[in-house]
Amino acid sequence: MGRVIYGMIQSLDGYISGPEGGPQLPMFGEPLHRYFNRQMENTAAAIYGRTMYEIMQAWETWDADPESSPVEKEFAPLWRRVPKVVVSTTLKAVGPNARLVSDDVEAELRRLKAETEGIIEVAGASLAASVGRMGLIDEYRLFIRPTVLGGGKPFFRPDLPLELKLAGTETLPEGTMLLTYEPVR
Which residues contact 30 (CB under 8 A, 6 or more apart)? Predict the structure, then answer.
């Protein structure tokens, strides 16, 4: 059975994007990118909503760009090899190594968790709130960057009350802290 993990980079004040939308957190450099490359190596499957999937699709061809750094060129094939489940009622098709789920989402995600060995990544606050309400998230990873946005899209949706217990902390490169929590069930 897979372990479903929701983790995203966020500001000190809890936002994954700024008031104007889009990522407005400072870009991270090679040391932190290498950390995320190792995370992707250990990912067995990924669950995306439409918006996050469309953002991440850039990795389909990123390594072909001569402007890409070596660490980015390393990440792109790691991302492509991970099977993806895209939850959307508006998309009509998805790219390679991805499967579109529009109906009976909870049953599909429960089946994915039951049939997958290893880490299943959930990306995106709205989707994670839905998956959390289903009781499918096993771990929350808060990658806290040393910046304050003052508003925007929060990591946790206000319509998802949770009781969590601290499972671990880790100091990462570039002043980033990883706080790991598990739901109290």
Answer: 69, 71
**Contact indicator for 86, 53 with CB cutoff of 8 Å:** yes
Per-residue pLDDT of 107-130, as tens digits, reads 999 999 999 999 999 998 999 999
pLDDT tens per residue, range 78-116: 999 999 999 999 999 999 999 999 999 999 999 999 999
CB 125 within 8 A of CB 158: no
- What span, in angstroms and rounded, lies between the C-alpha atoms of 185 and 177? 25
Say if pTM beats, i.e. exceeds, 0.85: yes
Number of Cα atoms under 13 Å in the Cβ half of residue 146: 7
Q: CA 98 to CA 100: how far, in whole Å?
A: 7
Helix (H) or strand (E) holding 72: helix 70-81
Amino acid type, 86: V
**In three state form, how does the secondary structure of 4-17 look?**
EEEEEEECCCCEEE
CA distance readout (Å), 33 to 29, 69, 74, 176: 6, 10, 10, 12
- What is the rounded (10 degree) CA torsion for 12, 13, 19, 20? 10
The runs of H, that is alpha helices, within 82-133 are: 105-115, 125-133
